[in-house]
Design a protein that fits this description.
Blueprint lengths: L1 H12 L3 H13 L18 H6 L2 H26 L6 E4 L2 E4 H10 L10 H31 L7 H33 L12 H9 L2 H28 L8 H27 L14 H5 L1
Antiparallel strand pairs: 1-2
Helix pairs in contact: 4-6, 4-9, 4-10, 7-9, 9-10
Length: 294
């Protein structure tokens, strides 16, 4: 017993042993330990597309894809509106403005599978959703970029490039978005066109763009659209990862060509109406406005 007491006293004064005994005591006092580690509850995994869209790369892809949809629509819409310059054509025994025939063709798409005008509205809703998604991706991507780079550009040259490439896109985008709302209210729903007649495309264009403030609005909005198209067409290839210095020239030619064709074509419409080149003549047609609205 005396020897055991000596060992205990030596261990109690030995450096480090006191803490060892304390740790052992704490371990023993914890009670039984489960053999299986407790895992924290895992978060529910997001769907792939939602998770991808939350990244900067995903937002750029969405902006590029919706941008392509917008470019194709704008070009196609402008080409269709060029039928305004064809004037009156013969449709069976009737004489009618060619752009009115084109408008009725669009409303008759997939008839009788779908009711009259339904497929056209499906296309319109799809385009509106694409525009909203484009706007949301642009806004959230801007927020991500500002969060990732809180320090502003230090070089004056870099600031000028950023000012032209990003800030002009933002403002021209806002102008284009507001113009889309006006355009629908003017020539689709007729809310802001007092003389609107449903189905009479040529007449409605003439009545709308004969108002000088409205014609000026269309010209300014389409110039903003051209600026937006130029930068959008140029940058969408980079957003999709298809950028290469070897292709910069043809990317610039494509962007310039798309923007120029759309601006020249769309601006020509209000100019032609104000100049009297496009003017509705009820005596030139055999289909009355009342018949077109039926």
């Amino acid at each position: 017993v005396h020897d055991i007491d000596i060992v205990r006293r030596r261990l109690s004064v030995a450096p480090g042993h006191g803490s060892n005994f304390t740790s052992m005591a704490q371990t023993l006092n914890r009670g039984p330990v489960s053999g299986t580690a407790v895992k924290p509850p895992s978060k529910k995994k997001k769907p792939f597309l939602v998770d991808f869209y939350s990244t900067a790369v995903g937002k750029k892809y969405v902006m590029a894809i919706t941008g392509i949809i917008g470019i194709l629509f704008v070009v196609g819409h402008m080409i269709g509106n060029l039928k305004m310059y064809l004037g009156v054509v013969s449709e069976g025994d009737e004489r009618i403005y060619d752009i009115d025939v084109y408008g009725e063709f669009l409303r008759e798409l997939l008839v009788p599978i779908l009711p009259h005008g339904v497929f056209l509205w499906i296309l319109r809703v799809g385009l509106i959703l694409a525009v909203l998604l484009h706007i949301h991706a642009a806004y959230t991507l801007t927020v991500l970029n500002r969060t990732a780079r809180p320090v502003k550009y230090q070089s004056p040259r870099d600031y000028q490039v950023a000012n032209f490439a990003s800030r002009s896109m933002r403002w021209t985008g806002i102008i284009v978005a507001l113009f889309i709302i006006w355009h629908l209210a003017d020539l689709t729903w007729g809310w802001v066109n007092p003389d609107f007649v449903k189905g009479a495309v040529y007449y409605n264009i003439d009545q709308s763009l004969s108002r000088i403030p409205v014609a000026a609005l269309y010209i300014v909005a389409n110039i903003a659209l051209g600026v937006h198209l130029f930068h959008g067409t140029w940058s969408l290839f980079q957003s999709l990862g298809w950028s290469s210095p070897r292709f910069n020239n043809w990317r610039r030619y494509l962007a310039t060509g798309v923007a120029t064709i759309v601006v020249v074509g769309n601006v020509s419409f209000p100019v032609a109406v104000l100049a009297g080149i496009v003017e509705y003549d009820p005596d030139a047609v055999t289909v009355t406005l009342e018949e077109e609205s039926d």
